[in-house]
């Protein structure tokens, strides 16, 4: 197959991995999550999405029809199965209930599966055609006006800086935090892009916000915490899911954040509002 054909086949593969029904994949069994790692995945929406995506790529690679049914391809399939089992045992399961470790393990595995397809396979995907999906909203979230606290902040190329005070060399800096990658979808009936924002000034704190940008060039925010470690942000239906690492209530700010948190939000009446059941679980 020529390079152009290979690119088209791989593009089709990745499109299917993003849109086919995950019921065809072998995901973590959340009806019987025996191990701590399984319970962690099942109780975290962002990890469940990564688990489903990893298994979608893996299943499609195993089920795809090769352009040439050669011994090399069969060797690759056998090696892929052994590699997947080794990754699950030695990498994923070794993370236990550590959110940041699991997030990185899944993201690295997804990248590895993609790279294997690009480097070694000429594929014709045999999965059923996916239903057409609406295009993700085209929102310039890096050049927008966000309402942060009691003021409007205009970001240019994802950043805003201004003197912390008159005649001061210190800067107040607000900027988009990526990674983790932004999420695009609909909330409250509006097309949005969800991102993390950080704000730091002359003091020692770095405050993090979850922010929504709209296609009118404006955005709103909700403060998450001081000196946290963002992990992921996702839009699942009308639910905005934010995961990050925090500290215990009695730990000083000098301690690195290690406690996993997941919070759920809705967009209503022009505001980001935390869902009561998520707030009660904190």
Structure description:
Helix content is about 35%, strand content about 30%. It is elongated, with a radius of gyration of 21 Å. By secondary structure, the protein is an alpha+beta fold. The strands form 3 sheets. Strands 3, 4, 5, 6, 7, 8, 9 and 10 form an 8-stranded mixed sheet that branches. The model is unreliable at about 1-25, about 120-135 and about 280 (pLDDT under 50). The chain is built from 6 helices and 14 strands. The termini are far apart. The chain has helices at about 5-20, 35-40, 45-65, 70-90, 100-120, 275-280; strands spanning about 65, 125, 145-150, 150-155, 160-165, 170-175, 185, 190-200, 205-215, 220-225, 230-235, 240-245, 260-270, 270-275. β7 (about 185) and β8 form a beta hairpin.
Structure characteristics:
282 residues, alpha+beta, 2 domains, eight-stranded mixed sheet, four-stranded antiparallel sheet, 6 helices, 14 strands, disordered N terminus, disordered C terminus
Topology (elements, then pairings):
Layout: H1 3-19, H2 36-42, H3 45-63, E1 65-66, H4 71-92, H5 99-120, E2 123-124, E3 145-148, E4 151-154, E5 159-163, E6 171-177, E7 183-187, E8 190-200, E9 206-214, E10 218-226, E11 229-236, E12 239-246, E13 259-268, E14 271-274, H6 276-281
Parallel strand pairs: 3-10
Antiparallel strand pairs: 1-2, 3-4, 5-6, 6-8, 7-8, 8-9, 9-10, 11-12, 12-13, 13-14
Q: In a few lines, what is going on in this structure?
A:
By secondary structure, the protein is α+β, with helices and mostly antiparallel strands. It has 6 helices and 14 strands.
């Amino acid at each position: 197959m020529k390079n152009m054909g290979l690119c088209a086949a791989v593009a089709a593969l990745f499109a299917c991995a993003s849109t086919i029904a995950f019921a065809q994949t072998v995901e973590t069994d959340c009806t019987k999550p025996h191990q701590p790692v399984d319970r962690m995945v099942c109780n975290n929406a962002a990890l469940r999405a990564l688990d489903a995506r990893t298994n979608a790529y893996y299943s499609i690679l195993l089920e795809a029809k090769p352009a040439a049914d050669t011994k090399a391809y069969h060797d690759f399939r056998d090696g892929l199965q052994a590699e997947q089992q080794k990754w699950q045992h030695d990498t994923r399961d070794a993370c236990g209930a550590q959110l940041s470790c699991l997030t990185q393990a899944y993201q690295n595995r997804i990248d590895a599966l993609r790279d294997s397809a690009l480097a070694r396979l000429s594929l014709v995907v045999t999965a059923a055609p996916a239903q057409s999906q609406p295009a993700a909203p085209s929102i310039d979230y890096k050049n927008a006006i966000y309402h942060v606290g009691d003021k409007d902040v205009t970001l240019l190329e994802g950043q805003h800086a201004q003197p912390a005070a008159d005649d001061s060399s210190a800067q107040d800096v607000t900027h988009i935090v990526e990674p983790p990658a932004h999420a695009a979808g609909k909330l409250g009936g509006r097309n949005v892009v969800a991102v993390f924002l950080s704000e730091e000034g002359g003091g020692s704190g770095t405050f993090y916000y979850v922010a929504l940008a709209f296609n009118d060039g404006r955005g709103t925010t909700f403060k998450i915490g001081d000196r946290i470690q963002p992990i992921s942000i996702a839009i699942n239906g009308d639910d905005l899911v934010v995961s990050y690492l925090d500290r215990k209530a009695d730990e000083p700010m000098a301690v690195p954040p290690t406690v996993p948190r997941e919070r759920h939000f809705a967009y209503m009446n022009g505001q980001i509002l935390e869902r009561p059941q998520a707030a009660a679980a904190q």
